[in-house]
Write a structure and sequence with these properties.
Number of helices: 0
Structural class: mainly beta
Order of helices and strands: EEEEEEEEEE
Largest sheet: 10 strands, antiparallel
Number of strands: 10
Shape: flat
Distance between the termini: 39 Å
Strand content: over 45%
Strand order of the largest sheet: 1-2-3-4-5-6-7-8-9-10
Radius of gyration: 15 Å
Length: about 110
C-alpha cells in the first residue's frame, strides 16, 4: 500500500504493530508479511470506522463498522450480521437486523 508507515519492519515488510496512513484513511493495528493481519482499527477520512479482525489484508472474523452518520454494524467474515444500531445525534436509537448484506425484520 502506498502511504506513510510508522512501525516495525521485518525483511522490509510491515510486521508487528504499526500505523499506516494512506489516501483514504488510517489503519492502526497488527501487520504480518506486509499486510493487515490480526486486530486493527481503520478510520476513513469521512469518519467511518472499522474495528476488528483482519487476515491477509482483508477484513475477517468478527468486527464492528460504524458509518460516518453513526450507523453501527456487526461484521462476521466481512459481511453484515446481527444487529445494526443507528444513534442519531440528539434522538432515539433505531435498530434493525441484518444477515449478509440484506436487511431483515426490525
Amino acid at each position: 500500500a502506498e502511504g506513510r508507515y510508522i512501525g516495525t519492519l521485518t525483511n522490509d515488510k510491515l510486521d508487528g504493530t504499526g500505523t499506516l496512513i494512506v489516501a483514504d484513511g488510517t489503519y492502526i493495528g497488527s501487520f504480518s508479511e506486509g499486510l493487515k493481519h490480526g486486530e486493527g482499527v481503520y478510520q476513513w477520512n469521512d469518519g467511518s470506522v472499522y474495528r476488528g479482525e483482519y487476515r491477509s489484508g482483508q477484513k475477517h472474523g468478527v468486527g464492528q463498522y460504524c458509518t460516518a452518520n453513526r450507523r453501527i454494524f456487526m461484521k462476521v467474515a466481512g459481511k453484515k450480521a446481527g444487529s445494526m444500531v443507528q444513534e442519531p445525534a440528539g434522538s432515539e436509537t433505531l435498530a434493525s437486523n441484518y444477515v449478509g448484506n440484506g436487511k431483515t425484520a426490525t
